[in-house]
């Protein structure tokens, strides 16, 4: 399938998407008191961390962690705007774009370890 650094970036993207899945579901857990939403979160947290661990086999940990957090933050904010009625004002969108720019910059300027 994928090898080396390319695989690392795919693992990292997948880890970030899993982070969005669990973060978006956290409100449904009611403080982790509801069983099924809590189990859903736990599965996606574990999967996200596992995929992040696979990514750092070929990517620098600082880069991988920053990109993982960026994907999760932006994706979860977009989810909140799209599905939870959260604010989508110009300042908030500009800040999200800055995070995206940082993630893209880290992708462009980070060497692989493979």
TrEMBL record:
Keywords: Cell membrane, Membrane, Transmembrane, Transmembrane helix, Transport. It is found in: Cell membrane. It is a multi-pass membrane protein. Pfam families: Multi_Drug_Res. The chain crosses the membrane at residues 33-53, 65-84, 90-109. Belongs to the drug/metabolite transporter (DMT) superfamily. Small multidrug resistance (SMR) (TC 2.A.7.1) family. Gdx/SugE subfamily. This is Guanidinium exporter. It comes from Geopseudomonas aromaticivorans.
